[in-house]
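Shapes recur. One chain:

:::
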Amino acid sequence: MLTHLTLAATYPPSAFVIGIVVFVLAVFIGFELISKVPSRLHTPLMSGSNAISGITIVGALLCSYSGSVFGVMLAFLGIVFATTNVVGGYLVTDRMLKMFQHKEDK
């Protein structure tokens, strides 16, 4: 056990490996949390998802000022995907709200 700790202290993991581990854990935890949500709470959950996508757009815009071509490409992809998610979320929410509106009798 002591040799493992010594090796871990001598060769710390790179930032890329730490990022991959955090991403994989976030995927599994997110999937488990979302799958446990009752169906009547999915609409508020989508509203939160739209807010997070808005924050993603801001982060992608900040990333576009990195000065590197790779950063600009990632920022462009982030903006495209997050904008698609926001617009789709609002369209689905609008359709759901129209289902609950009362139709006027003529």
User: Anything to note?
Assistant: The CA atoms of residues 73 and 106 lie 54 Å apart. The chain has a mean pLDDT of 78.
